[in-house]
């Protein structure tokens, strides 16, 4: 997975900052990717435990509690 730097810059602006350096944007993208991967792995476990292959919104919310 590779989060586009332009999306990270958009997140930064929406959070109230005007700009972010390229290096900081790359680092933020990687951190967001790592966090998403962790949440997805936990959500997969929740879905599997429930006997499903499809991850639901509720699985994501439960995964967030344990991530």
Explain this structure.
The chain is mainly alpha-helical. It has a single domain, classed as Histone, subunit A. The chain contains three helices and no strands. It has helices at residues 5-14, 22-49, 57-66. The longest helix is centred in the middle third of the chain and has 28 residues, at 22-49. It is elongated.
What's the quick description here?
With 67 residues, the protein is an all-alpha fold. It has helices at residues 5-14, 22-49, 57-66.
Keywords:
67 residues; 0% strand; elongated; 3 helices; mainly alpha; Histone, subunit A
Which percent range describes the beta-strand content?
A: under 5%
Query: Between the first and last Cα atoms, what is the distance in angstroms?
Result: 19 Å
Derived from helix and strand composition plus strand pairing, the structural class reads: mainly alpha
N-to-C SSE string, H for helix and E for strand:
HHH
Overall body shape:
elongated
CATH class group: Mainly Alpha
SS elements, strand count: 0
Determine the CATH superfamily: Histone, subunit A
- What's the architecture in CATH terms? Orthogonal Bundle
For the biggest sheet, the summary is: none
State the share of residues found in helices, binned by percent. Answer: over 70%
Helical stretch count?
3
Mean pLDDT: 93
Radius of gyration: 15 Å
Task: Write down the CATH topology.
Answer: Histone, subunit A
**Poorly predicted sequence stretches spanning 5 or more consecutive residues:** none
Count structural domains: 1
